[in-house]
Predict the 3D structure of the following.
Amino acid sequence: MSTRKTLIFKKEYKDAILSGRKTSTIRLRTDLKAGDEAYIVVGGTKLGIAKITAVNKKRLSDLSHRDAKRDGFANVRELIRALKKHYKDVRPWTEVSIIHFKLKRERSEES
């Protein structure tokens, strides 16, 4: 069995992940693929384990309202603003990976 990978998030995304509002994350690079499992770490705390359900590639300019909603944002504009905050050099033609996940097991805050 391969080593379990990790998806790291800023603490501002914790509630969206736990509530199920955030079921995807957009990254510039990933080696995750559908079927993998990954630890979900938010603000330095291990939240649980997620099953990766799909990984798709798109240009930043092709991101849709649905992509934004799955990532926990109200709209594409809000999503792109957040991506530009995290990744300073993204441009409309930048290819991103959309990692879809389902939180399988949650851990208590004390774990």
